[in-house]
């Protein structure tokens, strides 16, 4: 069911404008290339409108925001909205600082986001207006589990309705919801949390998937998440004794590079609630 | 013929100052180390003159330019000129935004560049003053091919004369020209386009090659490009089933690390027109 | 003796705030994760106080300092001091530019550092107020050797007393001193100098080690350095024909990921003088 979406990415080769953090930006670029898209990075306010105009999607990630890049985020976001481009927000560390929380909230007010992707603590912060994020990782007390799944799915749908966006909450169990439907995804491995930036990488891929599948946006976001999680599983199968998180990072990106429709359909584990 | 040039890099260990983008900067640093040089990065206007003064070459890459780093580019470029250091311009995305096009053109006006390296769309933009760059990749319609080779070689020589610089146009076929001679290089593999930053890496290596071979600048630039392309071929030979663009990136840098004069001479495929 | 310290890091999972350079930041993040800590990066002056408040340690690295991040360093350092957090300074390139030298000296005046880690040229610059740093690498004439070891140990202790900090001078022989004791460490391999950022990575790990071992700070710093050096040895054992500095980088981080108390105790080579 989802396999076709990655084929569409490879056929279209969507160009994704990224205003993202300098920690994981190289991996974000290589992951976008791996899935069949093309990345371009620009955060200078005087540059972003021109750059986003030639792209198909925009990924705004506040992981290492600064005064100048924040201005760039607003300008790029509004321009992308004007042009009808896909826009994603990754509110990295919302809840961990006032600047991050306020920037994310103000972005949501002034820019229409097709997708908001974060961990559960970041998403809760956006809803509540304040948070308890433990750095850039989710608070364990907040985690989506089998025990609270029904409530969490309802929450995801509510947030999706509130922000009129697809909401992707990633963690051990991933949720991808619009106001009516929620994909509950069980791909990936816990060892992925020991690599920096798998979330950022996902946020780079999603606009490529959505731009290439405009009539099935919810499926496209779910497919991107299943692609990352499946790649985490395939990459782990290839690990050798002595390998660690650095090699695992490479193997995951490699697995995305080699992902085809059949492999994605074979690995993807989800239900729709 | 070109093998000696990389030996000279390894013997001299030139120090290269890089004002480059934050996307590919880590790979640029590792590639400069791999070929025998030493990298230092600094873009703060108040820092760049001191830093460039202790270096042998300067690499200016506008891939993620901002107001502050642009100021740093002009200050560093002028200082490096004063000191007679090798200076290279990589006009990433010229043609994709007014800021990039204008910054590249103004840099060329105010700084003397020994080498300008870009894809064909970026180089055409510099000549025409405007462009049709598709993001950071060349427009396919512009590509150097066997069918238009003679015209493209003539164009490269003209641009070299116009800017009084060595012009390196990289793509499936690479051209390295001064006003009289043009190396036509056929190394590398198409899969290198699926890795972010092989062009940026090349722009980091070139000042090291030229600084270590001051009497043969054109050959030095050609040798750097043959080194990157040969490493792309050698790295590809080492790919295993399941490997993708992330591992390929590592194998290319590894192959540069292991490149010696004999290997470079064996792999380098070029003619002079 | 040192093995227990890395177990403590893995048990505690300390959160480390990094204001570091954009060249090696991704490797710094992955190395902190590899040793059992958690990284967060933020350099915006309006963000750093909130971020450092939720962390256990702060790593200030001036490798690509700019006006904005310098302001962030002072604000974060003072806040971390207020909260009693571990604070480390990595004076990258002190001696190579006036801005770097002056920033490092002013930071030492206004912020209390638990640890200062640099190469010998950088540390000498801090003492003398000016330096002869060759880029970001130590001047060979300054190196710690068996011939000058006694004098260098005395120097390290003096500097430690002067700055009331643990001083870590890394090179072929590493010194970790407070005013009374100096660990002389002989781990690592010369090939590590051909990878960008092993020093930066170490500076990211040290606050995690010290935060998790508050009653044995000197041992904790020594253990972090032995971990990096041992990983350099273990990673090198795993190198295959054709591998180079890019793969070596991955194997070192992998070896840190897999480092346990027994392995660290087996590999660590040090004496206390």
Write a structural description.
The structure is a homotrimer of 273-residue chains. The relative contact order of chain A is 0.16. Chain A contains eleven helices and nine strands. In chain A, strands 2-1-3-4-5-6-7-8-9 form a nine-stranded mixed sheet, with helices on both faces. With 273 residues, chain A is of the alpha/beta class. The first copy, chain A, has helices at 3-12, 25-35, 45-53, 67-82, 98-110, 120-128, 149-163, 198-212, 217-237, 245-257, 261-267, and strands at residues 15-19, 38-41, 57-61, 86-90, 115-118, 166-169, 174-177, 182-185, 270-272. Chain A is globular and about 45 Å long. The first copy, chain A, starts with a helix and ends with a strand. In chain A, α3 (45-53) runs parallel beside α4. The longest helix of chain A is centred in the last third of the chain and has 21 residues, at 217-237. Chains in contact: A-B, A-C, B-C. The interface between B and C is medium-sized, with 34 and 33 residues.
In short:
The first copy, chain A, contains eleven helices and nine strands. Chain A is α/β, with parallel strands linked by helices. The first copy, chain A, has a nine-stranded mixed beta sheet with strand order 2-1-3-4-5-6-7-8-9, with helices on both faces.
SSE blueprint:
3 copies of one chain form a homotrimer.
Chain A: H1 3-12, E1 15-19, H2 25-35, E2 38-41, H3 45-53, E3 57-61, H4 67-82, E4 86-90, H5 98-110, E5 115-118, H6 120-128, H7 149-163, E6 166-169, E7 174-177, E8 182-185, H8 198-212, H9 217-237, H10 245-257, H11 261-267, E9 270-272
Helix pairs in contact in A: 1-8, 1-11, 2-8, 2-10, 3-4, 8-9, 9-10
């Amino acid at each position: 069911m989802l396999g076709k979406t990655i084929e569409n990415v490879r056929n279209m080769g969507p160009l994704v404008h990224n205003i993202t953090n300098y920690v994981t930006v190289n991996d974000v670029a290589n992951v976008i290339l791996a899935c069949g898209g093309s990345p371009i990075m620009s955060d200078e306010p005087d540059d972003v409108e021109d750059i986003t105009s030639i792209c198909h999607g925009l990924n705004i990630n506040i992981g290492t925001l600064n005064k100048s890049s924040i201005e760039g985020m607003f300008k790029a976001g509004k321009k992308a909205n004007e042009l009808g481009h896909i826009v994603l927000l990754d509110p990295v560390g919302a809840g961990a600082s006032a600047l991050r929380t306020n920037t994310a909230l103000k972005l949501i007010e002034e820019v229409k986001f097709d997708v908001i992707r974060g961990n559960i603590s970041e998403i809760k912060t956006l809803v509540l207006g304040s948070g308890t994020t433990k750095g850039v990782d989710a608070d364990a007390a907040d985690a989506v589990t089998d025990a609270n799944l029904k409530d969490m799915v309802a929450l995801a749908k509510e947030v999706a309705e509130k922000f009129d966006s697809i909401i992707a909450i990633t963690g051990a169990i991933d949720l991808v919801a619009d106001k009516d439907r929620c994909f509950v995804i069980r791909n990936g491995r816990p060892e992925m949390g020991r690599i920096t930036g798998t979330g950022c990488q996902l946020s780079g891929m999603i606009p490529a998937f959505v731009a290439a599948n405009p009539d099935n946006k919810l499926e496209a976001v779910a497919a991107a998440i299943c692609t990352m999680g499946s790649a985490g599983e395939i990459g782990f199968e290839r690990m050798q004794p002595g390998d660690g998180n650095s090699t695992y990072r490479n193997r995951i990106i490699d697995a995305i590079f080699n992902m085809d429709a059949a492999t994605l359909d074979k690995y993807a584990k989800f239900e729709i609630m």
